[in-house]
Amino acid sequence: MVVEFTTFFGIHVRMYFADHGPPHMHVEYQGQEALIDITSGQVLAGSLPSRALALVRQWRLDNAAELAQNWTRAQLLQPLVRIPGADND
């Protein structure tokens, strides 16, 4: 099961329950998708436009602890916590 927990500037961030490692998030923007490593910000698969990727990477840095907690929650099949987007929604 997939859970979307953040949307900002048209960027959708999701995690899957009981997903494979390493800890990552699924990011979609304008029909492009990428898996982004939560720890490093590295693109594990797929691609995003450079501006969207820069926004996601900065947002990841700003919310590192919350992302790690959500990854742990997803592995335990617990509800994810919504993390405010980069546009402060």
What does this structure look like?
By secondary structure, the protein is an alpha+beta fold.
Major β-sheet profile = 5 strands, antiparallel
Ends distance? 24 Å
Number of beta strands: 5
What's the arrangement of strands in the largest beta sheet? 1-2-3-4-5
Q: For the residues shown, what is the average pLDDT?
A: 93
Features:
single chain; 89 residues; 5 strands
List the helices and strands and how they pair.
Blueprint: E1 2-8, E2 11-16, E3 24-29, E4 32-37, E5 43-46, H1 50-62, H2 64-75
Antiparallel strand pairs: 1-2, 2-3, 3-4, 4-5
Provide a compact summary of the structure.
This protein is α+β, with helices and mostly antiparallel strands. The protein has 2 helices and 5 strands.
